[in-house]
Structures are given as structure tokens and as C-alpha cells.
Amino acid sequence: MTNQLKTYPLKDWGLDIQNPLIIAGPCSVETAEQLDKTVEGLVKQGVKIIRAGVWKPRTRPNTFEGVGSIAFPWIQEAKEKYKVKFAVEVASPAHVEEALKNNIDLLWIGARSTANPFTVQDIADSLKGVDIPVLIKNPINPDLALWIGALERIHEAGITKIGAIHRGFSNFNDTHFRNSPMWQIPIEFKTRFPDIPLINDPSHICGKRALIPQVAQMALDLNFDGLMIESHFHPDAAWSDAEQQLRPEDLGLLLASLKTRQVFVDDPAFASQLQSIREQIDDTDREILELLSRRMGLVEKVGEYKKINNVAVFQIERWKKVFQTRPEWAIALNLNPEFVKELYKMIHTESIKKQTEVMERHLS
Ligand code: PEP
Ligand code: MN
Questions:
Q1: Which UniProt keywords apply (predicted)?
Q2: Which residue in 228, 245, 201 sits closest to 34, CA to CA?
Q3: Which of 257, 291, 309 is a domain's end point?
Q4: Considering the chain, what is the average pLDDT of its residues?
Q5: 128 and 56 in a common domain
Q6: Rounded to whole angstroms, how far apart are CA atoms 110 and 107?
Q7: Residue 262 pLDDT
Q8: CB 3.0-4.6 Å disulfide test: which of 20, 32, 124, 230 passes with 153?
Q9: 194 with 71, same domain?
């Protein structure tokens, strides 16, 4: 089921939008010189929309919290000199007011703000009657409803140029990424809101330069509408997020190397081949479900048998064995054992439920 909010597609945002949409710029504005040199480099690489943090939400106090209002004259100068648009993060009505007063072209709501409905509502209230594009980052926690809620609040305030930014999710178990991409969440978002532009932020997902190309390509393969990437003329000297910023030249190389995929292809041979593979997938899925149905039938049988012999539903030793062997079998079948582990957690939960139902049936 798709859930429509009345919004404008990217091409009607009144900006010179590239396909895919590229927004690049420093994590934070630092000095007039840093902004000028960075924007100069980015314009040479064809970037038309610059991102720049003026107020920075930091995890710990007494770290650099953005230069604040003194950034606006520098931004204004860069806008005039390089004919670019600027996007800035806002986290309060005061930020919104100042950004609007200073001709900022796009606003974005950061991941920490999206996680707080009070903050989002305050921002939404301050945007009533304003016509500006607003991009909403996913909340730091993997909660799709919270992300959608933020979009709805901004939409209800009358904003119609709305985009979503996927910047990954906090996850203690992930040592590879700074924020786990959890692609299934933006995919679910895209399924529910196909008309809302979805932009990937590989910088905050990766946390380090080397990983950015693969994440950016993955986003384009998944048909994202654009990328927001952090770039600084001298990344190692950056005051925030130094490890994940790219030099403008390197951003240019990255953009040139990315492959944009077509959503529809006219070639009839390709279409019939695709159709045939999809039919085989449909048949395989039917077989998977038939096997699952058979498995649940056996589970019910075990439930009956346990009931007759007065044995508890949950047998930890048996479960341990299932949980250990299935990922092992998965490896032999060239399947990801982590995926199979997750799958069996769900199968096990359903099996317990089925057996409990059997027990209750006997009781009544
Ligand atoms: C940022 O874009 O610099 C930023 C603070 O990102 P996030 O809100 O995604 O952490
Ligand atoms: Mn940053």
C-alpha cells in the first residue's frame, strides 16, 4: 500500500536539479577561506547545490558546535560569486528564521532532530506559510514510523517540496559502518512513498572515505534520487567529520565513476528474459511457502505429542541445535549464515506460537 502525501517532484523544486541530485559541501562552515576554496573546487566538479553545517549537533559538549550566524555573510558571498544554492541544517525555529532571512535555498532536518517529535513540530510550526524545500534525515534509531511522522509534520505545515535523506542508523554491533545502512528501511520508505525524492548520505553512513564509493553506488542501484556527500578542500584539517570528507577533486572522480541504472528498459529481448527469471522466482517462492507450511504442520504434530506427554513447549536444547546447524547448512548452500540465523529466529517464534495454540486448543 502506498501512502501519498501531496508533494512536488524534484524537477518542480525551482532549482537547477541534476539527475541524480548532487548536494556536496563541508560538514561545517569553518572560515570564509575554507568555504570559498571548497565551493570553488566543487563548482569545478559541476556541483550546483552546496551543503554546509552552520549549527552542529554534537554528541558531547565542549566540541566544535558550528560557527553559527557569522557563516551567513560568507555563504552569501559564495552564492553570488559561484552562482550556487545552499542547504543548511536547522534544529529550531530560531535557526529556521535566520536561515530564511539569509536566503538559504534548502533546509535539512538532522537525524537527532528527526528522532524528537517536539523538535520536528516546533520546526514545522515555524515553516508555516514558507515555500522552501525541506530534506528530512532518517532518525538515528531504525524507526521508519518516526521518519514518516517527521515528514507528515513538515507536510502538514504546508511544505510541498519534501525530500528524505537516508544517513544510516546507530548500531553498536556494526564496526564496519559509522551508521548501519539497513537498506530494507529506505527500500520500505520508497515503496510507501514512491514520489518523495530519496537521497543517500554515504558520508554519515560510512564515517570513512574508503567506503563511500560502494555505498553511493548501492544507493543508485536501488534507484535513489540523489546523493548528499561531505566535501572539504583540505579534509584532514576539517573541524568536524575529517575522516569522511572528500576533496572536491576526489568527489569529481567518484561522481564520474558512478553508474546510473535505468529503471525501465525498452529492449524486448531483455524484457522477456527478465520476465522468465521472475516467473522462476515466483515458482521458487511458492515452493518455499509450501515447505514452510509443511514445517508448521510438523511443528503442530510435535505440539500434540508434547501435550499428550505433558512436556513444555520450549525445549532449549533442541532450539540450540536448530540454531547451530541451520547456519552451518546455509554455508554449504552458499547462503549468508547471518541471514539464515535471522530467518530461523522468526520461524522459531512462529513455531512456538503454533505449539502454544495447540496447547490452548486442548485446554478449552
Ligand atoms: C551532518 O549532516 O553534518 C549531520 C550532522 O548529519 P546527521 O544529522 O545525519 O548526523
Ligand atoms: Mn558531518
A1: Transferase
A2: 245
A3: 257
A4: 94
A5: yes
A6: 10
A7: 76
A8: 124
A9: yes
pLDDT tens digits, one per residue of 72-107: 999 999 999 999 999 999 999 999 999 999 999 999
H helix or E strand, kind and range, residue 345: helix 337-363
178 lines ligand 1 (CB under 6 A): no
Rounded to a whole number, what is the largest CA-CA distance in the chain? 83
Element (H, E) at 21: strand 21-25
Q: How many domains does the chain contain in total?
A: 2
Instruction: Looking at the CA of residue 108, tell me the nearest atom of ligand 1.
Output: 2
Structural domain boundaries enclosing 15: 10-257
Shared-domain flag, residues 253 and 272:
no
Whether ligand 1 lies within 6 angstroms of the CB of 27 is answered as: yes
Per-residue confidence (pLDDT) for residue 280, from 0 to 100 = 96
For residue 64 the three cell numbers come to 566544535
Instruction: Give me the pLDDT at residue 6, please.
Output: 86
Question: In a 10 Å sphere around its CB, with 0-12 CB exposed, 13-18 middle and 19+ buried, how is residue 135 labelled?
Answer: buried
Ligand 1 contact, 110 CB (< 6 A): yes
User: Do 219 and 198 meet the contact criterion of CB atoms below 8 Å apart?
Assistant: no
The CATH number of residue 326's host domain is: 1.20.59.10
The pLDDT of residue 1 is above 50: no
Q: For residue 266, what pLDDT is reported?
A: 81
Residue 161 pLDDT exceeds 60: yes
> Which of 278, 349, 249, 281 is CA-nearest to residue 45?
249
The ligand whose atoms approach the alpha carbon of 165 most closely is 1
The CATH number linked to 249 is: 3.20.20.70
| Closest C-alpha residue for ligand 1 atom 1 | 27
Residue 95 included in any domain: yes
Residues 101, 176: one domain?
yes
Q: Which of 194, 225, 257 is the last residue of a domain?
A: 257
Give yes or no: residues 55 and 137 share one domain. Answer: yes
